[in-house]
Design goal:
The protein is of the alpha+beta class. The protein folds into 2 domains: 124 residues, Creatinase/prolidase N-terminal domain (Creatine Amidinohydrolase, Chain A, domain 1, 3-Layer(aba) Sandwich); 158 residues, Creatinase/methionine aminopeptidase superfamily (Creatine Amidinohydrolase, Alpha-Beta Complex). It has 7 helices and 14 strands. It has a 6-stranded mixed sheet with strand order 4-3-2-1-5-6. The chain has a 5-stranded antiparallel sheet with strand order 11-10-12-13-14, with no helix packed on it. The chain has a 3-stranded antiparallel sheet with strand order 7-8-9, with helices on one face. A hairpin with a 2-residue loop joins strand 8 and strand 9. The radius of gyration is 21 Å and the shape is elongated.
């Protein structure tokens, strides 16, 4: 199972946030004369479905269908036993135990539909007369509700890592990673990838080594479906570094997928991304990085 416990705290992200997002989708459908938008989602490519409905699957895949004139429908491969849970953590009420989009199109008399990022649709899913709707058309940049969630996730990631870094040197890497796992999971983190290194390699899964002062740790974590990445070292706590340095690596966090490598020129205004840079101290490779938003005047630390 990829994720931990998924819940929806409506004081953090109110239903009104989704009403505004769906209104933008429906306005686009009206302008393009499309009756509905189809959004593919699975356990890895969940950012878009999460943004529009708060649906984040534990496994399997689904199609989120947003009609122009009615409530969203989830066509999924999950069994009905999980439908009560889905309804409790999403805005969805109409959930159907299949991915038979053709049947839904026939029932509604739709001759064509919009498909979000149609070129990225899995090859085995056929959607005749599909019209591509680019993600940027309905999500030009994170809204205030989404930004608030990213900022909260980044703050949590930094605080927990900073606390555990203080006593990390001398620990076996398995124990250190286990401590981080416990802290992040109990704080509500759904997915977590922790990699470590003593400076001879890039960060990798723990292998039973004792952490030395030259160690670095990379934490990529998902909180309520919002990914952030923080990288710190035994020399100093995680800290923001200037993105775009010649030795930095950029990963987009707010695209269709959870996180993926990209070039600085691929970043759009409002993009949420991680930047990780490498330096050498005493012959050891030291890694530092943090999560940023591409603002009007350049990168802004979240």
């Amino acid at each position: 199972m990829k994720r931990g416990w998924i819940t929806w705290d409506k004081t953090e992200l109110p239903p009104s946030a989704f009403e505004s997002r769906l209104a933008k989708v429906r306005q686009h459908l009206f302008e393009k004369e499309l009756p509905a938008l189809v959004v593919y989602t699975d356990v890895w490519r969940s950012n878009q479905g999460r943004y529009l409905s708060n649906f984040m699957p534990y496994w399997n895949r689904a199609l989120l269908v947003i009609p122009r004139d009615s409530a969203p429908v989830l066509l999924c491969g999950l069994s009905p036993r999980v439908y009560p849970w889905i309804r409790s953590v999403t805005i969805l009420e109409d959930i159907r135990a299949n991915m038979n989009l053709a049947k839904m199109r026939d029932e509604n008399g739709w001759n064509k539909v919009g498909v979000l990022d149609f070129p990225l649709l899995p090859y085995d899913l056929s959607v005749p007369n599909a019209v591509d709707v680019p993600w940027i058309a309905i999500h030009p940049e994170p809204d205030e509700g989404e930004l608030s969630m990213y900022r909260h996730a980044a703050k949590m990631a930094r605080e927990i890592l900073r606390e555990e870094l203080r006593a990390a040197v001398g620990l076996i890497d398995h124990e250190f990673v286990g401590r981080l796992e416990r802290k992040y999971r109990t704080a509500g983190v759904e997915d977590l990838v922790v990699l470590v290194t003593n400076g001879d390699t890039p960060p990798v899964p723990p292998i039973g080594s004792t952490l030395t002062p030259s160690f670095s740790v990379s934490v990529a974590m998902e909180y309520r479906g919002h990914w952030v990445k923080i990288v710190g070292s035994g020399f100093q706590p995680a800290a923001g570094l200037p993105p775009g340095a010649s030795n930095s690596k950029i990963e987009l966090l707010s695209g269709p997928y959870s996180y993926e490598s990209c070039r600085p020129t691929d970043l759009k205004p409002g993009s949420i991304f991680a930047s990780v840079a490498q330096s050498t101290i005493g012959g050891k490779r030291i890694f530092q990085g943090d999560t940023y938003r591409q603002g009007p005047n350049g990168p802004e630390l979240l």
